[in-house]
Amino acid sequence: MSIFKKLLALAEFALRKLSAPKTPAKSAEQVKEQKDKFRGSDHAEDLFRRSWGVAVKQGTRAPVYGTKDENKRIQVRECAQCKVEEIAKQYKRRKVSEVSEKRHIENIKALQDALTNQCGKYLHNRKFRFGRAQKLLNTYLKCLWCANWLKVAPPHCPFDRAIICDLSLPNHDNFWDKLAQCDAPGVQDYNAVTWNWTQSDCIGDYLVWVAAAKEVVRRSGYRSLAEWELFEWKRPQKGKK
Whose C-alpha in 13, 133, 147, 160 is 20 to 30 A from the C-alpha of 154? Predict the structure, then answer.
């Protein structure tokens, strides 16, 4: 079994081990109101520009670019836009069901590989990190969803510092302490998880974030990771991991 399948199986195992009651789900009207607050422009170019802006900012220890040449940076951005818009077509075509979770993670990896292979010489350490790739694709899909260009919510949500911090707040009943006690092979690897999304370059880190978010979503009564993040993003943080 590949490491990807093992980590995905471990994440699902952890979720089955934990239980807690749900709270009432958000109404369709509440979701629409929150989407309208976020959406801003509906222009395709603006949606990508917004997504790219949040994906490449911050991270002084792990910057995006390996060059100060603005023309070279524009080339990286254009390459990213081309690949993201190509990948997004898969989600736009879906009218009933979402792109599978496995395919979604493969799409993030494909985005990372495309930018690394085509623009590596202009990037810091000659690669585009997985943490930034997930932020770019997930934010772009969030923008499309809020603009009603997607019929269903994206499979996942953007993971940044605010959202990752929210995964381990006290009111979540020490989720991570319980997760660390699960008697599943490889669970000790959770101690090595990178919590800084700008530095993360590991699918395993991302799967752990997703597993934790799924548990929080299940406890909170939201219908999807995307809906949960829509309401929780930019809320005042009470604590951090």
Answer: 13
Residue 37 has pLDDT above 50, yes or no: yes
Q: What gap in Å lies between CA 152 and CA 150, rounded to an integer?
A: 6
> Is a pLDDT exceeding 80 seen at residue 195?
no
Distance, in Å, from the CA atom of 174 to the CA atom of 6, rounded to the nearest integer, reads 24
Question: ∠ CA 154-227-172 to the nearest 5 degrees?
Answer: 120
**Residue spans per domain, the chain:** 3-28+157-232, 40-146
> Distance of CA 99 to CAs 95, 151, 236, Å?
10, 11, 32
Whether 130 contacts 109, CB under 8 Å: yes
Give the model's confidence band at 165: pLDDT under 50 very low, under 70 low, under 90 confident, else very high: confident
